[in-house]
Specification:
TIM Barrel, globular, disordered N terminus, 2 domains, alpha/beta, 13 helices, GPI-anchor, 33% helix, cobalt, membrane, two-stranded antiparallel ribbon, disordered C terminus
Length: 414
């Protein structure tokens, strides 16, 4: 029988019955209809606590003894005066801090090997705006790589499942989208660990690649990622202080129009022609405007260029894609469901304690996913992208049900 919305004036149901029905539907929709018990995860868009049993178990299973003692960076990146000493050491002979100068390690993935191959990638989802992008990609039989923010899966596990089951490439983008060089080693572990867990809970797989938010990575962050079995993927730079960032996020801030953002994309293609390799471009499926730019301008233009070959990053690297049919949690589906570490001492991901409570207050370091690390005009990456753009808030299904109740509307079965 279909669900219908009826006014209370048409009902003889008692207030107690309506209230009971409300709590039942709220619980069902908010926690279990998508297979996630929200109480077992940290709050969205905040750095997870490091004293939870889950994170402590991770810390006990990995070896951080080889992580270099590089000082934590201050919020604001190259513009922060407290980072002056770090900037002098940002090069390859120092801490190799990508944010200030674009330094990359030989182990970082920044290009596709084959010339004219474009590794499509989209950051910061899943969101409801991802659907329009997915529709376009499916229509044109394109596969892309999605760097997903762990906590945004809480409200959109169904979209994550669609991305994966459609054959797209899935990769981590941390839990809260916080600049990693501003965090302690333990907080970085927590950011990665919760992302690993929620994707495993929803898809039943464990991934091996991560893109640091804003591209903010140095040798300390790299070492923590390596200890957890994770590889860093950024995006291409053809010139010093110029990266293949579409600047689609600047349409949100008003710094660019769709036309000038498209001109930036054309400049990227011109730079790509000078490379002996393929390239990886940064774009976002976070906002309606960034998706519109992708499906109305950038992708049609790319498809019209017969020299370009658009692929997911895994495909362009000649590696197995992480797309496919979602596996049962705990199983292996192309990628291992084992705890990713460099010693392979266990075959199980640490399980979150079901009694884990949500912490109150904020972290001592940046807990705002839109906090910039670098706002300079040189090597911005996505740091500036979401720092200047307004933060999106996604209401949970439970909140929607609460709103219906407060409006005096109830769900009944016809």
């Amino acid at each position: 029988m279909p669900f219908q919305i009826r006014s209370p004036s048409h009902s003889n149901t008692s207030p107690r019955t309506r209230l009971g029905a409300f709590f039942f539907v709220s619980f069902l929709v908010g926690s279990h209809i998508c297979g996630l018990d929200l109480s077992k995860y940290p709050p969205p868009d905040k750095v997870p606590p490091t004293d939870s049993p889950f994170v402590k178990e991770w810390l006990a299973k990995i070896d951080l003894s080889k992580v270099p003692a590089i000082p934590i960076k201050g919020i604001g990146g190259c513009e922060n005066a407290t980072n002056a000493a770090a900037i002098t050491k940002a090069g390859p002979d120092g801490d190799c801090w990508w944010t200030c100068g674009g330094c990359t390690s030989k182990e970082d993935v920044t290009t596709c090997p084959v010339k004219n191959t474009w590794g499509l990638s989209y950051d910061d989802g899943p969101t409801e705006n991802s659907v329009r992008l997915l529709d376009y990609l499916d229509q044109h039989q394109l596969k892309a790589t999605f760097f997903v923010v762990g906590s945004r899966i809480l409200d959109h596990p169904d979209i994550l499942k669609r991305e994966y089951s459609s054959g797209h490439d899935m990769k981590y983008h941390t839990w809260s989208h916080t600049s990693l060089t501003t965090l302690t080693n333990e907080q970085i572990v927590a950011e990665f660990a919760w992302s690993i867990k929620i994707i495993h809970d929803v898809l039943g797989i464990t991934l091996t690649d991560v893109r640091p938010p804003y591209g903010d990575v140095d040798n300390r962050v790299r070492a923590v990622a390596k200890a957890m079995g994770l590889r860093i993927i950024i995006w291409t730079s053809a010139k010093p202080n110029e990266s293949f960032d579409t600047d689609d996020w600047r349409v949100i801030t008003g710094e660019r129009t769709p036309e000038t953002a498209f001109q930036k994309f054309e400049a990227i293609l011109a730079d790509a022609a000078t490379l002996s390799t393929g390239f990886i471009v940064l774009a976002h499926d976070l906002y309606p405007q960034t998706v519109a730019l992708a499906v109305e301008r950038i992708l049609p233009s790319a498809l019209a260029d017969k020299k370009l070959k658009l692929q997911s990053i895994s495909t362009c690297l000649g590696e197995s894609s992480t797309g496919g049919t979602p596996a049962a949690p705990g199983s292996k589906n192309g990628t291992s469901a084992a705890l990713p570490n460099n010693t392979n001492t266990t075959n199980n991901i640490p399980s979150a304690n079901s009694s884990l409570s949500k912490p109150g207050g904020s972290q001592s370091t940046s807990t705002n996913p839109t906090s910039p690390v670098n706002t300079s005009s040189s090597q911005r990456g996505t740091q500036a992208s979401t720092s200047a753009a307004p933060q999106m808030i996604y209401p949970s299904r439970s909140i929607v049900i609460v709103a219906l109740c407060l409006l005096g509307v109830r769900l009944t079965i016809a």
